[in-house]
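Reading a protein record of the kind used here takes only a little practice. To see the layout at work, look at the sequence and tokens printed below.
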Amino acid sequence: MRMSSRAALAAATLSCATVLAACGSGTTGDSGSDGDLSVVASTNVWGSVAQAVAGDRIEVESLISEPNADPHSYEASPLDAAAISDASLVVYNGGGYDHFVDDILESIGDDVPTVEAFALFESGEYSDLHSGHDHGTSTDAPASETPTEDEAAHDHAGDDHAGHDHNGVNEHVWYDLATADAVAHAIAEQLSELDPDGAEVYRANAADFHESLHSISDVTTRIADTHADAPIAQTETIGHYLVLSAGLDDVTPTDFTNAIENGTDPSPASIAETRQLLLDKRVGVLLYNPQTEDKVSREMRSAAETSGIPVVEVFETLPEGVDYIQWQTRTAESLAAGLDSAS
């Protein structure tokens, strides 16, 4: 799990005091001088989910929206702090991924309503969207929430696949459809409290979002049915939950992905092992994050392309011109197409 520059963040947070004094400090239900509700998301991934729920009633602001940005290394500005302080609702990933949000919330000391995706992920709630896998915590469900037989088929907590959550906890939970579903419904409930007149709209939009998620889970279910336990590789574990929901086997050397995820240099031995895995065509696809590419990851992509292994790109922010549903559907379809071509 990589962290942003804390030194730069501390400087930005300290300079926020002047900005916040000018902007005014937000309180629960407040949203700026015009009286409208304000929803702020850390990235445009969660901003897209929030916008799907808010609909036409609220314009959601995403602090990180640049397609080539790397949220791990994002440095918060005083304007970011002001936006969070004045927000009616803040939606963010959590789990240390966008730590600048936690730092700003702590520094301003305000009771700003929030929806944290990682906290919902850790709750381990079951749905019909493949939430049966290991969330890094106990996943015992109440009797009324016992997973169906189909969901249980996707529970990798007790098998060899669980070992591929290389750090024990993987914070990239936007690839977990059940978490996206939970975030949408949590946003709907928060907005319903802040804007009772729009409650029916928010809840209906969250229900529509849930139904749209099935366009993605239908693809991952087909992958699990046709390519069960197919070996794949990743340059880093961004797509961990996509891999789990599709029933695939990430065989990338643990030392390699741990180093990439922690922002350190992989050992020569792990680089050689990963390269040989690709050159020997022992995997069906390579999942590749172009937002954090470096010499090593580019070398792995080159090895995959040399061997004719399809490369499936996974991102940390939304590509331009698509929403969450379109993005995740395209990614799942790209994964399916890659595996089909490798069969």
